Amino acid sequence: MRKKRYFHKLYKYNELSNTYSIEVSLDNYDDVYDDWDASPFKKRDIEDEFNDFVVNSSQDIPFNYNISILLYLPESKRDKQKEVTLISAYKNYYAYALDRLNKSKRILYEKTLSYLILSIFMLGIGYFFFKGARTIFSNILHEGIFIGGWVFLWEFFTSIIITSRELREEYKTIQRLYRAEIVFVYI
């Protein structure tokens, strides 16, 4: 209950839709776009500061709540076409981010499988094929193969337990931002 009150203080909450609103004040529609990107507005990147603010705010709010983005603009700047363009750019930006994360997940799973295979292979070689007479060179090789096998096994578990969890959390955050309703408020 205390945590819920904390979010009520920081973010507007709509009980009917179970939604917290992330509020952003803008001087102009262009404030959302990256100034260095020369692409047309619909495909233009989102400004890093805007993205950081929205992502960090979204991470403050538990995943069991929906979010909306309230963009406050001066009444004199009202333009329906720019609203549509901004929403399109916003959706394109986060759709692309989701695609990149899907690619990262696929690469991680491929690496994780290769770590497991290499670990089993090296530990198997170390265990089954180094029996009998040993020289200094064969002892060094034997220990090196065992150490390599354990290192690959460590990487396998790190990838499964830590890295994949971080990617899932990031994916959930970006997916929630992609699904967020964009609301324009003119003051």
Query: Shape from CA axes?
Result: elongated
SS element count, helices: 4
Percentage beta strand: 5-15%
SSE string: HEEHEHHE
Radius of gyration: 25 Å
Please count the beta strands (DSSP E, at least 2 residues each): 4
Instruction: Please identify the structural class as seen in this structure.
Output: alpha/beta
Number of domains: 2
DSSP helix fraction: 55-70%
Q: Strand sequence of the main sheet, in spatial order?
A: 1-2-3-4
Low-confidence stretches: none
Q: What is the overall pLDDT average?
A: 90
Distance between the termini: 33 Å
Describe the largest sheet: 4 strands, mixed
Structure notes:
- By secondary structure, the protein is α/β, with parallel strands linked by helices.
- 61% of the residues lie in helices and 13% in strands.
- The longest helix has 49 residues.
- The two termini are 33 Å apart.
